[in-house]
Amino acid sequence: MKASKFNSFFKYDGTDVGYNSFTQEFIILDPLLFDLYLVGEKKGDFSELEAIHKDYYHFLVQQGFLVADELDEFEKTKELAYKIDNDDTLFHLIVNPTMNCNFKCWYCYETHIKDSKMDEKTISATISLIKNIATTQKNLKTFHLSFFGGEPLLYFEKVIKPILIKANSICREKNVVFHSSMTTNGLLINQPMLDFCKEYQLTSFQITLDGSREQHNKVRFISESKGSYDQIVNNILLCARNERYVSVRINCSVDTLNKLNDILDEFNVLSNDERKFINFQFHKVWQEVEEISDSLENSKRHFRANNFNVGNVLSTTLDSCYADKRYQATLNYNGEIFKCTARDFTNGTGEGVLNDDGTVLWNDKYEKRLNIKFKNKPCKECRILPICAGGCTQHALENEGVDYCVHDFNEDSKTRLIISRFEAILH
Questions:
Q1: Which of 75, 177, 186, 414 is most deeply packed, by most CB within 10 A?
Q2: Residue 240: CA atoms inside 13 Å, Cβ hemisphere, count?
Q3: Residue 54: is its pLDDT beyond 80?
Q4: Under a CB-based contact definition with an 8 Å cutoff, are residues 157 and 146 in contact?
Q5: Which CATH number fits the domain 84-324, given the four candidates 3.40.50.300, 3.40.50.1370, 3.40.50.450, 3.20.20.70?
Q6: Gap between the Cα atoms of 289 and 382, Å rounded
Q7: What is the pTM assigned to this prediction?
Q8: Segment 278-303, tens digit of pLDDT
Q9: CB-side neighbour CA atoms (13 Å) of 255
């Protein structure tokens, strides 16, 4: 047996902790036991450890810290990733009702198109697309419909409602589990809207805050004299009280760090039962050049201490990006089909187009995207490959032929990610 290449070890409160990124198992080690492991790792031979402490040896094998000598762990990870990314029991359709928005945030990567709106013809084609998927994808068990943009709630009545109603009906008819979600700035949410969402299985929202009240209102304001922070926070609280899950994305920079904890004052009014519907996500804005990771980790600990969920740290092995999956599509308001939402929806840069009959005409970019991962050399020896998967297909496309690392080859950054997962389990 040999040591898994996916092992990591770190100190936590003076204790040695091990982690295997394929099995996602953590082990807390007695110093003597850890030394025994290190001796075997250095020698490349664990037969002595097996002879001294058979139970410990078999425990390391069971948890994935020791693997067969002949096992190619990279190929095993790759095979599992492709199996997950080609799972035909589900389909995820993302719809952009518009590329217009009621805010103009300085960091936004989207091109906002005034008066852009999905027309009746494209709505009809979208419904036909959903029906085609539910009819022809024979192993389909779950259909997930998301709304993105732009600000999708600008056209809640004219675009979202008719698509949601029909999608529900189609999935019921085909005995397919249906659920829906939305990425929104949250300003336009109200009680009648949430009543409709409950009836038609729209269960979750992602809503962004740009720090505490003062900082947020500098970025997202209704007018020069009126910010949006209070209204958005109240709407997030309303969602939680209506048992709608909300991923609260907090955009972070040096300017927002010192008041991140102030946001808790707004959410501590929720009961413990209501808090389970809130998940805080901390994201450094991409223009921020200073290193703020340690400060963000401190804020995460503070939020967890107040009984809030923080981060997507408990995702499963190779739970890859939605855009990496074959059975996923992002439909723009004008009928163009993309995969990734985290880029500009520029005409002619997508992977296909939606026909009037609900079929999709894919171009050659589609297959290239789906087969580009795991060709980056540094990934082959990376200890966190099973939870990173080399980044997403968009990263791979943008770095084709160039060695890259989504953690900038920073081993400390990788360890911080592991510790964050460990703390989430402890919480």
A1: 186
A2: 27
A3: yes
A4: no
A5: 3.20.20.70
A6: 25
A7: 0.89
A8: 999 988 776 665 777 778 888 888 89
A9: 13
Residue 180 has pLDDT above 90, yes or no: yes
The ranges assigned to domains in the chain are 1-71, 84-324
Tens of pLDDT, residues 223-241:
777 889 999 999 999 999 9
- H or E element: which one contains 16? strand 15-20
Q: How far is CA 169 from CA 139, 145, 174, in A?
A: 19, 13, 9
- Distances from the Cα of 355 to the Cα of 57, 116, 160, 217, 335, angstroms: 59, 19, 20, 42, 8
Pairing state between β 142-147 and 177-183:
parallel
- Tokens 């999935």 appear where? 171
Count helices and strands (H / E) in the chain.
17, 18
HSE, side-chain direction, 13 A CA sphere, residue 44: 1
Cα–Cα nearest to 153, from 118, 182, 112, 110? 182
Please give the backbone phi and psi of residue 162, each rounded to the nearest 5 degrees, phi first: -65, -35
Cβ–Cβ contacts within 10 Å for residue 354, how many? 21
C-alpha triplet 314, 426, 419: angle, nearest 5°: 65
Average pLDDT over residues 149-155: 94
8 A C-beta contact, residue 406 and residue 414? no
DSSP state at residue 18: E
